[in-house]
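ENTRY TYPE: paired fold submission
RECORD: A
CONTENT: sequence, then structure tokens
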Amino acid sequence: MSGIGSLLLLLLTLYSYAIIAYILMSWFPNARESSIGQFLGSIVEPYLAPFRKIIPPLGMIDISPIVAIFALHFARMGVAAIF
């Protein structure tokens, strides 16, 4: 069981990094239109969409990815507690 828990923790951590990379790509012009940006968008956007429906942007700042990363952190803590 420890191997499954370690794998889940690794996947959740990598997904958090993918979200952070996707956020940072918004700072650079046309970065999200690149092949890497489109790949990250196809992975990250389905997870961020429910958070964006609940949390409206504050002017030009979208804080929903921050809340999504916190949710992943709590999921990692839950997985660590179970395994």
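RECORD: B
CONTENT: sequence, then structure tokens
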Amino acid sequence: MGNRSQTLLLLAIAIFGIANAVSIPRTPRPNTRNTNVPMNFTADIILRDGYLLEQHQVTTADGYVLTMFRIPGSPANPAVQGKNVAFLMHGLLSSSADYVISGPGRALAYMLVDAGYDVWLGNARGNTNSRRHIFHDPDARNTDFWDFSWHEIGYFDLPAMIDYTLAHTGHTTLHYAGHSQGTTSFFVMASTRPDYNKKIRSMHALAPVAFMSNLRSPFVRAFAPFVNQLEWIMSMLGVNEFLPSNDMMIMGGQRLCEDESPFQEVCANVLFLIGGFNSPQLNRTMIPALLENAPAGASVNQLVHYAQGYNSGNFRQYDFGLTLNLIRYGSIRPPDYPLHRVTAPVALHFSDNDWLAAVEDVRQLHSHLSNSIGLFRVSDPRWNHLDFVWGIDANTFLYERVISFMDRYN
């Protein structure tokens, strides 16, 4: 890694607050629009933009309480029974806000609502919308709340949210779109719980992440060789949550990254360091809002699990070490996910400049899928990993195509 990348990596650590291990509760903002809807960053955006909003909660089989947001319509597209359902799932360190933050006409959730869909936004365990459990306290030291990776998100969270959505709407199938970890967790669900394949009308993988041997992000490559030490150190310190979102980070993001700040370009470069450089597609005025939503919190084990995948070259379950692997899996190595059991129609949307979902890795994933809709490259050669949700022109480069495929499978 060159001097420039090393410098940017240090800036990333400083700005995103990896050293900040203690979460400071966010001060709630007053709800001046609808007293029946608790204030939340995603809800605030949806209400501000004039769309209809419902908030729903579901409890997983292992006790996590997850929040979902439903956008059943807008003033131009009223809520009616029987609309086709689209379920959207966010990536690592993000939340449902990713799908509305770009605003009407640009954000995928709004474009789907405007196209006549009943849109549901999921939130994985551990992010700012889903920090509850029937027993465990996420803020307690050495709590079991954070004892999960994206395997549990796929095995427990997605089925719980999908079942709730279908039961509430009266449908038997829905369309699924996920970004990054939202694709990883889908492939976990569809391969380990194959009965859910029949509930998916079409799946759209935006920057799909399963195999990771060829990723280029120095952010991941820097800590992957030390992942076992990182896991041990964090465990010994009783630090289980990675990059908690709090008032200190929000204030830092607003002051360092606002339009008048001389550090705004540094903030942009930090984002580029993670997912790839594409300056024309980043709305710099939006950076403070992005940092208010992200990082939205995650388990350390989620990052460890990804680093294990990069090190091993396999898409497989969490590696607990030789002894625990023998107890849990009956083998010294964790089993690969049986991707041949994924039978839902899957469209893989990828790009040449994605530093986290390399073209070679996406093609390897595609070779394991028996019912692929196809591989679809974003035409912008500079399109990066975060452009799939935050890119200025994501509506024309990507979302129109996704919606057209959904329409085709209705």
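NOTES ON RECORD B: Residues 150-169 form the longest helix (20 residues). The mean pLDDT is 86.
STATUS: closed
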